[in-house]
Amino acid sequence: MAAYEVVFSLGLQGLWAAMSAVIVSQERLHETRSSLAGRILGTLLGIGVTVAVSEITSRTTTSTAVQMAIAVAICASVVRELPKLRVAMWTCPIILLTAQPSTPMLLVALHRGSEVILGAIIGWIFHWFAEVVVDALPDAESDLPCGRASRQERIQPVEQQRIERIGGD
Question: Domain check: are 93 and 158 in the same one?
Answer without folding.
Answer: no
